[in-house]
Prior knowledge:
By secondary structure, the protein is mostly helical. It folds into 2 domains: 4-30 and 64-308, no CATH class; 366-471. The protein has helices at 7-25, 33-46, 68-107, 112-125, 127-130, 136-154, 164-174, 178-194, 200-213, 221-230, 248-268, 273-288, 293-303, 324-346, 366-374, 389-396, 414-424, 431-435, 449-455; strands at 27-28, 352-353, 380-384, 400-402, 440-444, 459-463, 467-471. Helix 16 (389-396) links the parallel strand 3 and strand 4. Helix 2 packs across helix 16, helix 3 (68-107) packs parallel to helix 6 and helix 4 (112-125) packs antiparallel against helix 13.
Amino acid sequence: MMKPENVPGLIMAALVLVVLAFAGSGTVADPDLWGHVRFGQDILAAHAVPRVDTYSFTSDRPWINHEWLAELLMASAYGVAGSAGLVALKWLLAMTTFVVLWRALRHAGVFQPSAVGLLLMAILCAYGLMMTVRPQLFSMILYTILLALLNAAGRGRSRLLLWMPVLFAFWANLHGGWIVGLGVLGLWSACAVLARTISWPWAAGGTLLGLLGTLATPYGPELWSFLWETVGLGRADIAEWQPITRDFYLLIPWVATASMIVVAWRRRGRAALPVLIPAVAVGALAFRVVRLEGFFALTNVILLAPCFAALGPERLPLSRRPTRADMAVVGAMCLVGLVATGVAVKTRVGCVTLTGPDQKTSLAPEAEATTFLQSNPIEGRLLIYFDYGELAIWHLAPKLRVSYDGRRETVYSEVVQKAHQRFYSKTPDASYARALKADYIWLPHRLPVISLLQHDGWVEIFRGSKSVVLAREPGPYTQPAPWIGRRCFPGP
């Protein structure tokens, strides 16, 4: 039978489960999801990682697929249970992440009530990482494991740094976020040596072993040179790479996370510098790049955990000893809350929905254009909008090859990328379609280039609620019936 003093713990556990359920239950299809699963299927079929792209007619560089292992796992999950398999994979990664986080907090000496508060903050601030099924989910869990290992090493368990080559070997094959992890490892190691938390051989050895682990990919040192050439902060055409100042609501979790640095400084002062400096560095990057905001929260919650040790009560106090009736009521309320949460999220679990939180991120309307292109004898070269590229690869390859898609620098040179960005811009050059010898064009009808293309002789053969398809000549094209199916990945 449950002890009375455990009643507050039960309430906090129920609260965490409810928040986590709502935060992780909804799963939206990112524009790259179709490509991730398709490329993973190709790897499974060929038993090899392809180096030459066959889906695009403008790709002009060897394919460095640094997310191949994540795509293989995503394709495997989809092969087992379809869209529900992808959601299950996301849940497995998210739940494992927060279990590791919880254990790291408790091992650092953070009392249960404070640990619950920090865990809830991490869940809410990492919400953006859990909205989609993407390779960055693997970075989320591996980054959490890295921070937990660094915390343990700072408490005298330096031998845990010997796991760095294994950690980074997996990470380098799953997602490019290992660059942030390696930077944090190096900065933490330098600060820990200066603070005499660990000896310099362990610090230098752990960092070097982590770096060497990133060579364990199909590309070896070629991956380093590729990332050196391509990784940067200047990606004006991608919303996730913009500063958080572009949206006031993005500032709220950043400020809440940054406040932890202030609290840690007030509690520990200069003694906290070995962990504060890496946290400040990640915070500065997160201020510049929206997609790092969740990693900033994980950094502060785990890396600063020793600064919150023994903060607050060891457990929530009770004003009086609860009676059996009190415990029955609390148990019933927790059960009702969990059941209500389960009912509320039931319709969202098992479906990677094509409808985002707003019309700008929704890909459901593109099902109309996809069905149109599928149901007509359309073949050749498709000049396409960036976000539609991998959707088209899934549904229309090999009869149609795309001009551009979300792989960007992994298969396209900077020349090709900039040419497409100009084509999508407010001052486009419609002659680019002729230069590419495109047979068809699929673009959002809000782009200024549409009218210029029509003036240049291109004919509109389909118009949906968001996009338009153009051809060189008119023809007897069949218009699709409205899509009435459930709006789940992969679509019609």
